[in-house]
Amino acid sequence: MTEAQHQSCVMKWSEQASIRSKWPCLKLLHHVPNGGKRDKIEAAHMKQQGVKRGVPDLDLPVPRGKYHGLRIEMKDDAGRTSVDQDWWLGELREQGYFCEVCHGWQSAVSVLEWYLSLGEFKP
């Protein structure tokens, strides 16, 4: 499976009614569209609008435990993070976010379940 297919599986999992009834806040899980191939004009427009290299793929802006939110960088089984991605993950961790690189959709689902089980935000 490709990284995009794994990410689609995570989103499908998060949209299941039984999962949403347990964790309604999953409705806030979203993709940050920084990757992908674009022509030069579209790439320039996206950059002007604030797209930045390396921003993690998935964002759950829901505080849990000691964290301000969850950010996930999706990878396929063989994927590796870039220098830009490592920088973003480190900076976000310093700001109080839980960040994880997930290889495959099952890994991302496990991280989401763990994160959501942390309970109420306690800085």
Polypeptide structure, described:
The protein has five helices and four strands. By secondary structure, it is of the alpha+beta class. The chain has a single domain, classed as Trna Endonuclease, Chain: A, domain 1 (3-Layer(aba) Sandwich). It has a four-stranded mixed beta sheet with strand order 1-2-3-4, sandwiched between helices. The protein is globular and about 45 Å long. It comes from Caproiciproducens faecalis. This is VRR-NUC domain-containing protein. Pfam families: VRR_NUC (PF08774).
Give me some keywords for this one:
four-stranded mixed beta sheet; VRR-NUC domain-containing protein; tRNA_endonuc-like_dom_sf; Trna Endonuclease, Chain: A, domain 1; 123 residues; nuclease; alpha+beta; VRR_NUC; hydrolase
